[in-house]
Each structure stands twice: as C-alpha cells, then as structure tokens.
Write a structure and sequence with these properties.
Blueprint (H helix, E strand, L loop, with lengths): L1 H11 L8 H16 L4 E22 L4 E3 L3 E2 L6 E10 L5 H7 L7 E5 L14 H10 L4 E5 L23 E4 L1 H12 L5 E22 L4 E11 L9 H20 L6 E8 L7 H13 L5 E6 L8 E5 L4 H15 L7 E3 L8 H6 L4 E4 L5 H4 L14 H20 L9 H10 L3 H6 L7
Parallel strand pairs: 4-5, 5-6, 6-7, 9-10, 9-11, 11-14, 12-13
Antiparallel strand pairs: 1-2, 1-8, 3-7, 4-8, 8-10, 12-14
C-alpha cells in the first residue's frame, strides 16, 4: 500500500514543501491514512516555522568581454532580494583548509564550492552545505555558488542556513558540467566576475508533525519512536526524499494495526515536517518532550530517511545497544537470510530528524541501505520523482523495520539513554564536534 499511496501523492499533491498548500495537503493525507488504517491514537503536533519559497534567480559569469548565462537554482533560506557582483574564486570543497589556502581573497568574493568531496585528501570529512556556507560567510564571502556532483545537468536545492534563519548572502547551485567549465576558465588564468541576483519570499507559518500510536500491551509507558520526514523540496515530488521513508511508515503503521498480535511497548509513528528547512519539526517535538518529561519515556528513535531494502541497521547508543541490534538482526536473518544480510553499523551522522533525539541522549537507529547512484544523484533535485522508487524497497522497509520494532518492543529491558559524558565522547569519536559547533548545536562549551 505504501507505494500506491506515494504514487497517488506524487500525482495529486506533488511536492510537500513546509508552509506550502501542498505541504498542508500532505499533512491532511497522512492524518487520514493513519485514521483509515485503524490507528487508535492519531494527532498533530503544530509548530511555527519561518517558511521560505523560491522566486527567481539569475546567474551570469563575465570575463570583461561578455557574460555567460549559467542555469542555477537558489538554495533555501537565501535572501528575499539580493544582487551581487563579485570576483569568482574557486574554493574547492569549501572546507576550512580550502578557505585557509585562499586567505583574504575570500572576502568580497563569489566562491565556487563543491557540494560533495572532489579530489579530497585522504581522511577528509565533508561538511553539510549549510556548514560550508557559514564558514564562508564568517570569512566575508559575498556570494556562494555550489557545484552539484551529479552528472546530467542536475540542479540541487536544499537549505544554506544552519538554523533555518535567512542568510545574508545569495547562494545558488549549478550543474557539475557548468562548474567544470568555469573551473577550466579559472585555471586558464581568466579573471571571471559572477553576477548573482535573486528574489524569494518568506513568512512565518504553522506546520504540523503527524503522529499516530499503537499502545503497548505490557509496557505502554515505554515508547519506541519510528519517524521520518514527510516534507520535501519543491523542485520535484520528493518521492525518494523522503516519500520512500514516510510512506513506508504509513504502511508499517497500517500493517501493525492490522496484526492480531500487538507490540509490548508503545510504538509511536511520527511524520515530521520542516526537516528540509533545518529539522524544524523534530527540534520542536524534542524540546516539547524534554520540557514535559515525555522524553524519558522514549527508549529509542528509529529514523527512516531515504531508506530502502534494509540490509541491517545502524545504531548510535551507549553500551548495550550495539549488542542488542546484533541479536535482533540475527533473529531477522534467521527468518529471511535471502533478503536481509543482518549488518550492524555504529556510525553516527547528522542532518536528519534523529539528530535532535541523539543530542538529547536518546539512542537512535536507522536502516542500512544503498539506493544506488541514480537515486542519490536526484535527491533535492528536479528528477526526484516516482520513477526512482522501487516498490519492493518500500515493502522491505515495512518487513524489516517492523520486525525490529516488534523485537525491541518485546525485550525484557532496553539499554539506557546516553549519559551526558558518554554522548560527548561518542560525538567527538565520530568526528562530529566541528560540524555541530559550526551549526551552533554543540551542547558543551
């Protein structure tokens, strides 16, 4: 059913941008589907957000003899109106070392920056585009031109803001082929000037996370959250990012509600809005849970963001969680070794709705899957549509995430949350202190 529902949404609703009429329709549809599936508890968690919408963007690059018009798309949370003319400088991957090498040339320049890592030194760790933007702006960059790494003249959007607020300089994305052309001209010694202008709109809106529950039969006071973001960017329909995850959650809720046996702990399904614009819905929910004490009831959070064909699960938790996931995966493998490999990873990452839970000390879990280059090259892009979605990937999400949920719900006791010190050391060990500091999310001095 998940694929059928997602196909209908892609055709009838389209994109699901927070604050847009389509976003409102997606929230209403999710609410209705939870109710139609027989979930006994369905509610909405409203929050306010600064919603950004794109208008027009123009990028031209000149060499003193004429200007080349370059196709571009504005990144989100960029200025409502901007017009900048500045020397174009290649900032490589936009990491601190790249900016250090440019020195004072960054100030007042339009920087050409890779979204991914290209020809990086061994061991280099990439940063989110918003973190790269923050570093560049702190050093005085006048404009940012990000280069997408997907081939085929694919343009990518996404937020350029670390906190959802509008940034003061224009930022746009161009295709990898155009980035290559501009870099060849710069390497040939041409002095290029970029003119980047844009108009956008922004307003404070109310959006809602859509929440449904199956109460536990033995330990209803203990909650396992299964969440994923319902919102998407507006260039396409967001079928893989993250219709793939969110509509799998809707189908999982339907399947579990229809089962004759119910989970022993409460399963709470959460479809977040505002993820793409800065984890707005999940941040708001975690803060509310923290204030009310509800967070103590949440034993773990399973995040489905662009997940499909799970081959195992990753986990970020203190002692006991990795061992528990290994046992659980072994149990699932014993039932279906042909489709489920049972891998377990302890890698911890950021920039999805598990992040606020993790920073609050809640153990987080996510499916391990590889959707393929053709999918990852289209996320946040005009090609992210239903043709990329494999229906079996959604079925496998339901099968294996559901199996894990039942197993975790049936455990006699679940391991604890992170202590403050164990969380700090885990984040440091994962190399996440720098990006969290850049984003203003590092909880310690």
């Amino acid at each position: 059913m998940g694929y059928r529902w997602l196909s209908w949404s892609s055709a009838r609703i389209g994109h699901r941008l927070t604050g847009s009429p389509q976003g409102e329709q997606a929230q209403a549809a999710a609410d209705s589907l939870f109710r139609a599936s027989g979930l006994p508890v369905v509610k909405r968690f409203p929050f306010t957000a600064q919603a950004w919408s794109r208008g027009t963007v123009q990028l031209t690059v000149g060499d003193g003899n004429g200007f080349l018009h370059v196709q571009a798309v504005a990144l989100a949370n960029t200025p409502l109106e901007a017009s900048v003319e500045a020397p174009l400088i290649d900032a490589g991957n936009g990491l601190p070392t790249d900016l250090d090498s440019l020195g004072d040339r960054v100030k007042g320049a339009a920087l050409l920056v890779n979204i991914g890592l290209v020809a990086a030194s061994e061991g280099a760790r990439n940063l989110h585009r918003s973190e790269k933007a923050k570093l560049a702006m702190d050093r005085g960059a006048a404009a940012l031109i990000f280069v997408n790494q997907a081939e085929g003249h694919v343009l990518l959007t996404g937020t350029a803001s670390i906190d959802g607020a509008l940034i003061p300089v224009p930022a746009a994305c161009i295709a990898t082929e155009d980035g290559k052309t501009l870099r060849e001209r710069l390497r040939a010694g041409q002095a290029l000037t970029a003119r980047l202008g844009m108009r956008n709109t922004s307003a404070v809106v109310t959006a809602s996370n859509v929440i449904a529950e199956l109460p536990g039969t033995k330990k209803p006071e203990e909650v396992i959250v299964i969440g994923g973001h319902l919102d998407s960017w507006d260039l396409a329909t967001g079928a893989t990012d993250n219709g793939l995850g969110s509509f799998s959650i809707l189908d999982l809720a339907r399947a579990m509600a229809a089962m004759p046996f119910k989970p022993e702990r409460t399963i709470r399904f959460v479809l977040f809005m505002g993820e793409e614009q800065g984890l707005l819905g999940s941040r708001a929910l975690v803060e509310a849970y923290r204030a009310s004490g509800e967070l103590n009831r949440v034993k773990c959070m399973i995040n489905l963001d662009m997940s499909g064909h799970p081959q195992g699960f990753g986990v970020g938790g203190p002692d006991g969680w990795s061992e528990l996931l290994k046992r659980s995966c072994a149990s699932i493998t014993a039932i279906d070794s042909a489709a489920f490999a049972g891998r377990v990873s302890e890698e911890v990452w950021l920039h999805s709705d598990h992040q606020p839970f993790l920073l609050a000390g809640v153990p987080v879990i996510y499916p391990l899957s590889d959707l393929g280059k053709h999918v990852y090259g289209c996320y946040h892009s005009s090609c992210d549509d239903i043709h990329l979605v494999d229906p079996q990937a959604m079925v496998d999400n339901v099968r294996f995430v559901g199996a894990l949920a039942y197993l975790l719900a049936a455990e006699e006791s679940l391991p604890a949350h992170f202590t403050e010190e164990s969380l700090k050391q885990r984040l440091i060990g994962a190399g996440l202190e720098q990006p969290l500091r850049i984003g203003g999310d590092w909880p310690w001095p």
